[in-house]
Amino acid sequence: MDNCLIICKRVLESLSVPYTQQFLKEKVLTHPHYPSLLYISDILEEYGVGSLAAKLGPDRLDDFSLPGIVQVLLADGNYFNVITAVSESEITLFDEKGKQKDVSRLDFLKSWTGVSLLLEAGEDVAEPEINQKIRDQQIIKGVAMIGVVSFLGWLGLGLVENGTSGLFLFYFLLKGLGLSISSILLWYQHDKENPALQKFCSGGKSVDCNSVLDSKTFQLVDGRINPSLIAFAYFFAGTGLIAGLAFLAMTFLAWLSVVSIPIVIYSFYYQALVIKKWCRFCLLIQGVLAMEVMAVLWGVFWEGEFYLSALSLFLFLFTGVILIRPMLERKDELYRSKRELAKLKSNKELFELSLLRSKKIKNDPQGLGILMKGEKPKNQVIKVCNPYCGPCARVHPVLESLFDRGNIVLHILFTPGNGDEQKEKTVRHLLAIESKGNSKLTHQALDDWYGAERKDYNAFAAKYPMNGELMQQDEKVRAMEDWCEKEKVYYTPTLFINGYELPKEYNVEDLKYILT
């Protein structure tokens, strides 16, 4: 697994930050500055974890805030580690592969470059919309569980009605067991840094799953077809065949089990005498195949009639898995393509050229709307929005992050209400809050409004009570409406960067890497 991805995982786990694998992986592998300390800092910021890059000396190690990220120089290049504990004699850390280990202080100092990322977790550290994602995952798991139970119930009922022998049922259970083991093996080949799987696949000098699975002897079509994929396809097709055809498939499956004997023998020979390493998953699958042969011989299953439909269905299921699996793995290629596009879009020179070709503001919006100045602003961003616009709410956190860094002047304007009394009341209320001259209050009010899942004006007005200030905003509202008409702003959100409309090729997420 990628060093930066596994380090981000270990940091989030150390800080007890809830996250989902898919969101984290996509953010990591599509970042334009991947791989670098800057990009790790950006990723952690998505979860509410603040960071500060620093170059520290050996004398600062005892003052290191934990957990923290450090860069180490190894024989094959620079990597990141996560320090979790420091004592006088040793350092506890997650290494470049995500394994937790204790390293002597002296050995650590020899490899540490001094480059570090100090971390500070906020109060509400979590992945964006994590609760909804967890609920979705639970629903999917629940539906899958119901599907599995229903399938097993249907299959069991069919076996009972047909008076199935115990030996046939045992053979079917072996197929299910093989499918489970091969599924885990397939998972391991995709996520070799998984701590639980790694622990099972290693243990002493003679146990090493990677040596067996990655051996060129077992790789076909440039590694696209490997032992784990073949095993999964075999057991998946076999289980599907029994589920679909039951006894009609038994003769074909029996001969297929017998044919697997040379494969079992060769695999055992190769592990024992050629590479002298054992793969525990492979041994389990070999054991299942051997028991299949025993069940076939004991039950004399090969004496039945051979049905061509069994062969056709098996080949369909087997080749289907072989072909679909590489297609699913193309997601990593998609991540790489998205990362290359992000690198291109984060090029400031190209952005400036594209911006100059975009529509330019003709009328100065000075004195209109809500103006929020950063500490050291380099750029001005005008956001024309609607308080009840969903996309406007999604844009707000990104612009807020840029403002919090002090990078921008954020100018917020609102589109005409067009007779919508509720919308106009909300706009007047936000302007009234801004008129008090308290920037923190304005900032908080905007966060509360755009961060709310349900836009409830009455609740918002009760939290931020106003008196006569509301009646003083009509002229400001009309001035904003006139400005929008003159600039022909007809949709929200519309963004202007330094006086030019944001080009259609860019979105607000790209600004995080451009306006720095």
Automatic annotation (TrEMBL):
Give the GO cellular component terms, alphabetically: membrane
Per the database record, which ranges form the Peptidase C39 domain?
Answer: 1-119
Query: Which Gene Ontology molecular function entries are recorded, alphabetically?
Result: ATP binding; oxidoreductase activity; peptidase activity; quinone binding
Question: Its principal location?
Answer: membrane
Q: Give membrane topology per the record.
A: Multi-pass membrane protein
**Keyword Membrane part of the UniProt annotation:** yes
The text of the family note is: Belongs to the VKOR family.
Q: What is this protein called?
A: Peptidase C39-like protein
Organism (species): Algoriphagus antarcticus
Q: What is the lineage of its organism?
A: Bacteria, Pseudomonadati, Bacteroidota, Cytophagia, Cytophagales
